[in-house]
Design brief:
Alpha-Beta Plaits, 2 domains, 4-stranded antiparallel beta sheet, 4 helices, alpha+beta, 3-stranded antiparallel beta sheet, 147 residues
Amino acid sequence: MSDLMRLQRYISQSGRASRREAERMILAGRVAVNGTIVTKMGVRIDPSSDQVSIDRELIRSSPVRWVAFHKPAGVLTTRTDPHGGVTIYDRLPSQLSKLRYVGRLDRDAEGLLLLTNDGQLSNDLAHPKGEVEREYWLQVVGTLELA
Protein backbone atom coordinates (compact mmCIF):
# COMPACT_ATOMS: atom_id res chain seq x y z
CA MET A 1 0.00 0.00 0.00
CA SER A 2 1.38 3.39 -0.93
CA ASP A 3 1.06 6.54 1.15
CA LEU A 4 -2.32 8.22 1.18
CA MET A 5 -2.60 11.68 -0.33
CA ARG A 6 -5.24 14.38 -0.36
CA LEU A 7 -7.63 14.11 -3.27
CA GLN A 8 -7.09 17.69 -4.46
CA ARG A 9 -3.32 17.15 -4.53
CA TYR A 10 -3.75 13.99 -6.61
CA ILE A 11 -5.89 15.92 -9.10
CA SER A 12 -3.33 18.74 -9.20
CA GLN A 13 -0.46 16.33 -9.81
CA SER A 14 -2.41 14.74 -12.64
CA GLY A 15 -2.09 18.05 -14.46
CA ARG A 16 -5.86 18.43 -14.79
CA ALA A 17 -6.23 21.44 -12.48
CA SER A 18 -4.51 23.50 -9.82
CA ARG A 19 -5.14 22.48 -6.23
CA ARG A 20 -7.62 25.34 -5.77
CA GLU A 21 -9.44 24.43 -8.99
CA ALA A 22 -9.56 20.81 -7.79
CA GLU A 23 -11.11 21.96 -4.50
CA ARG A 24 -13.83 23.81 -6.42
CA MET A 25 -14.49 20.70 -8.56
CA ILE A 26 -14.81 18.56 -5.42
CA LEU A 27 -17.22 20.99 -3.74
CA ALA A 28 -19.27 21.14 -6.96
CA GLY A 29 -19.70 17.34 -6.95
CA ARG A 30 -17.70 16.79 -10.14
CA VAL A 31 -15.17 14.37 -8.59
CA ALA A 32 -15.70 10.70 -7.76
CA VAL A 33 -13.46 8.20 -5.97
CA ASN A 34 -14.12 4.56 -6.87
CA GLY A 35 -17.46 5.61 -8.36
CA THR A 36 -18.66 7.57 -5.31
CA ILE A 37 -19.11 11.34 -5.68
CA VAL A 38 -17.02 13.33 -3.18
CA THR A 39 -18.25 16.78 -2.09
CA LYS A 40 -16.21 17.37 1.08
CA MET A 41 -12.61 18.38 1.56
CA GLY A 42 -10.12 16.22 3.46
CA VAL A 43 -10.63 12.96 1.56
CA ARG A 44 -7.42 10.96 1.23
CA ILE A 45 -6.85 8.39 -1.46
CA ASP A 46 -4.37 5.65 -2.22
CA PRO A 47 -2.98 6.58 -5.65
CA SER A 48 -1.93 2.99 -6.29
CA SER A 49 -5.42 1.53 -5.94
CA ASP A 50 -8.16 4.20 -5.89
CA GLN A 51 -9.79 5.33 -9.13
CA VAL A 52 -10.49 9.05 -9.42
CA SER A 53 -12.69 10.62 -12.08
CA ILE A 54 -13.67 14.17 -12.95
CA ASP A 55 -16.97 14.56 -14.77
CA ARG A 56 -16.98 10.75 -15.20
CA GLU A 57 -13.60 10.76 -16.95
CA LEU A 58 -10.97 8.61 -15.24
CA ILE A 59 -7.73 10.42 -14.47
CA ARG A 60 -4.32 9.11 -13.56
CA SER A 61 -1.67 10.94 -11.65
CA SER A 62 1.43 11.40 -13.73
CA PRO A 63 4.91 11.60 -12.31
CA VAL A 64 5.76 15.23 -11.65
CA ARG A 65 7.75 16.65 -14.55
CA TRP A 66 9.71 19.86 -14.84
CA VAL A 67 11.34 21.08 -18.01
CA ALA A 68 13.63 24.08 -18.39
CA PHE A 69 13.09 25.61 -21.82
CA HIS A 70 15.08 28.42 -23.42
CA LYS A 71 12.46 30.62 -25.06
CA PRO A 72 13.96 32.49 -27.99
CA ALA A 73 12.90 36.02 -28.88
CA GLY A 74 9.96 36.14 -31.28
CA VAL A 75 8.25 33.06 -29.83
CA LEU A 76 5.00 33.49 -27.88
CA THR A 77 4.45 32.11 -24.39
CA THR A 78 0.99 30.73 -25.10
CA ARG A 79 -0.58 27.47 -26.23
CA THR A 80 -1.98 28.79 -29.53
CA ASP A 81 -1.98 32.11 -31.35
CA PRO A 82 -5.05 33.04 -33.42
CA HIS A 83 -2.80 35.25 -35.57
CA GLY A 84 -0.53 32.35 -36.53
CA GLY A 85 2.50 33.36 -34.47
CA VAL A 86 5.03 30.73 -33.37
CA THR A 87 4.39 29.52 -29.80
CA ILE A 88 6.56 27.64 -27.33
CA TYR A 89 4.44 24.54 -28.00
CA ASP A 90 5.42 24.71 -31.67
CA ARG A 91 9.03 24.41 -30.51
CA LEU A 92 8.53 21.64 -27.94
CA PRO A 93 8.50 17.90 -28.67
CA SER A 94 4.94 16.54 -28.77
CA GLN A 95 5.45 14.46 -25.60
CA LEU A 96 5.79 17.75 -23.65
CA SER A 97 2.64 19.34 -25.07
CA LYS A 98 0.58 18.74 -21.91
CA LEU A 99 3.00 20.61 -19.66
CA ARG A 100 1.98 24.11 -18.56
CA TYR A 101 4.32 27.06 -18.50
CA VAL A 102 5.09 28.85 -15.24
CA GLY A 103 4.82 32.61 -15.67
CA ARG A 104 5.55 33.97 -19.11
CA LEU A 105 8.03 35.93 -21.15
CA ASP A 106 7.01 38.60 -23.65
CA ARG A 107 7.34 37.90 -27.38
CA ASP A 108 10.57 39.90 -27.71
CA ALA A 109 12.11 38.46 -24.53
CA GLU A 110 14.28 35.38 -24.42
CA GLY A 111 15.31 33.28 -21.47
CA LEU A 112 14.51 30.42 -19.15
CA LEU A 113 10.90 29.30 -18.98
CA LEU A 114 9.79 26.49 -16.70
CA LEU A 115 7.12 24.00 -17.79
CA THR A 116 5.47 21.44 -15.52
CA ASN A 117 2.51 19.18 -14.90
CA ASP A 118 2.53 20.07 -11.18
CA GLY A 119 -0.35 22.55 -11.07
CA GLN A 120 0.01 23.45 -7.39
CA LEU A 121 3.73 24.19 -7.49
CA SER A 122 3.25 26.09 -10.74
CA ASN A 123 0.66 28.34 -9.08
CA ASP A 124 2.83 28.78 -5.98
CA LEU A 125 5.74 29.96 -8.13
CA ALA A 126 3.73 32.21 -10.43
CA HIS A 127 1.40 33.87 -7.90
CA PRO A 128 2.65 37.10 -6.27
CA LYS A 129 1.68 35.75 -2.82
CA GLY A 130 4.38 33.11 -3.26
CA GLU A 131 7.00 35.87 -2.97
CA VAL A 132 9.37 34.01 -5.27
CA GLU A 133 12.29 36.24 -6.15
CA ARG A 134 12.94 36.70 -9.85
CA GLU A 135 15.99 38.13 -11.48
CA TYR A 136 16.01 39.71 -14.92
CA TRP A 137 18.90 40.86 -17.04
CA LEU A 138 18.19 43.64 -19.48
CA GLN A 139 20.21 44.71 -22.48
CA VAL A 140 19.44 48.19 -23.77
CA VAL A 141 20.26 49.54 -27.19
CA GLY A 142 20.94 53.28 -26.95
CA THR A 143 21.23 55.49 -23.91
CA LEU A 144 18.91 55.60 -20.91
CA GLU A 145 18.19 58.95 -19.33
CA LEU A 146 16.66 59.51 -15.93
CA ALA A 147 13.30 61.27 -16.11
